[in-house]
Protein: Homeobox domain-containing protein
Organism: Arabis nemorensis
Amino acid sequence: MESSRDDSSSDEREISMNNNQDKKYHRHSNAQIERLEAYFKECPHPDDSQRQNLSEELNLKPKQIKFWFQNKRTQTKAQNEKADNTVLKAANMRIRLENEAMRNALETVNCPPCGGPPLGKEERELSLQKLRSENANLKEHYEKLKSFVNQQQGGHSIPSVDTLPFIHGPSSYASTSTNNFHVSHGSSSQNPLEPPSMLSGPYTRDNTNIIRVPQPPQPQRLPMQIQHFQPLSQVEKIMMSERALNAVSEVRRLVQTEEPMWTKSSIDGRLVIDQENYEKLFKKNHLKSPNARPESSKDVVVVPMDPRTLIDVFFHTEKWARVFPTIVNEAKTIHVLDPMNHEGQNFLTLVYEQLHILSPLVPPREFMVLRCCQQMEENLWVIADVSHNLPNVDFEFASPICFKRPSGCVIQALPNGHSKVTWVEHVEIDDHKMKPHRLYKDLVCGGSGYGARRWTVTLARMCERLSLSSISAFPTTDYGGVVKTTEARKSVMNLGERMMRNFAWTLKMSQKLDFSQLSETNNSGVRLSVRMNTGPGQPPGLIVCAGSSLCLPLPPLQVYNFLQNIEIRHQWDVLCHGIPAAEQARFVTGTDPKNCVTILRPTSATTPSEMMIIQDAYIDALGGMVVYAPMDLNTAYNAVSGQVDPAHITILPSGFVISRDGRPTPTAQLEGGPDYSTTLVTVAFQILVAGGPNYGEDINMDESTTAVNTLVSSTVQRIKAMLNCE
């Protein structure tokens, strides 16, 4: 290590010219170099404030810090290019040898069925003619079957693969009369519930168009259409299998290895990979970009779910998105290389996933990954993900360039149907052209935004929720109230879960709309996104989603308790119209009683409100969410009856996302002391602007967007005033 420091950093010198043009050299101390190199591993591109903090800490000038990082990046780039050239030369030699072996094999090829001599030209022509004839017969048979099925279905065509539900996307969560052509922050489900549709669902991408107003809605480009993917060749399958098995081996080694492979982050104390040790042990797969930065972390959790059920979650994208609703925005299985057979030991699929967290100010991340499961021992499984991009595939967003190095988890079976999960996340990100907003820069660029801790905390919380929702009796922690049966309780909890998924999806706001009244000079910090809903289970019409993010000098738990306090809710929530709310039912969704689904009803001394509010909220080690939606009484009675599928109850959720700011955590706090952290809060409202599948030309979008902007801004100001954070 001493020699490497001398080679890489100790000779870094700042050269300055005095009045006599004499050169002065400054050699950094070993302690300074160690701190700079440790910081460089986590953040190779520090901004002005970070350089200033380092200069004060190390007693160096900001320019010295700046020049040191510039030189270090240049040196690292040169070393990477040298290593890449060596790898490429070896790969080139291997391919040449493989090519030569294939040529030799072709010269001596035998007929596969009988092991005889190679087919001649005439035999090949006869074989091709026979195959063409069989293909024509099969096509004719297919057309007859298709015609017959269409007749049986009343003339409806067989749905093609690209019309199947996209696993995460706009959901059927809104409730408003189709005759309402005014801004409506609420629900009025006067229409009968829509019947279930074979292809509809909370995530059907075809049912929603993101548009720019006031022009009529235009269909959005569908980036991940299955019919564009060509079948895999045998050679591709072999290469993908080898890559996946190597990833499994690497994940297992990373889980079993401790220091010096894993070190504690100087930012928040989490375990991160030492990149120098990593590159000595493993094959170097990375982005070919000088701006790429690695993110790595490891965490362990015990969850109330058996290993085989967990494996089933990992390999069914709909369940995957349900268990991680606040992380996985969309997911789709592209290819299945090995069937999902629980009797076997190896499963392999190619999966597309889009990840997004916390706020519209955080850009989503998109991956195409090979996901492989291998059973190592009787009670031990390894699941590994590794990036594997296909040619001619365009992702939806102009998102950061993402590459997933071997990541995943080791699942160990425990007694009583529990599992111990050790999770490893290791990715490379190039967000040079699309950086997160300054509010979320520390959180995302520090590596904790999408780190292993977020996955394990979410997994534990959702496993607790699924376990509690399936019990056949009312727990003592619940308050049944207007909900009389356990089936109705389960229905309400499922409705809250679906509401949470929809709200998390809306936060990505794929298109930002700027209007004339929201100029840079008086920008309120509100971002708007507009979409037209046309599918069943959604309110047909134009919906505006407005969101704003802010930083509060209070710990997350204090902010969460404030938002959960129903005694003062009417002072900031416009849905209450200034009337105090009363709790009608409450169902705990985890070991922490603060995590619950509640039904509220604003009630005055003389007249109860004609509306109820369903709310789902949770708080965990990283933050929390408070999501709620209004329901008219008819919709509310359907929800609490337990006799209506919650997937067909239309609601339009709004809410808050609470998160830590990602800045370095004081040592005293890590050791259990007081929480002095600050909180990042995102508030987002969804509002129906115009009902019906076609909105009129006379809609004044300026007035509508001004109303939405005012609603968000005024709510934020009231909350800040009540928390004394103005």
In short: Residues 88 and 94 are 10 Å apart (CA to CA). The domain at 29-102 is CATH 1.10.10.60 (Arc Repressor Mutant, subunit A). DSSP finds 16 helices and 21 strands in the chain. The longest helix spans residues 62-107.
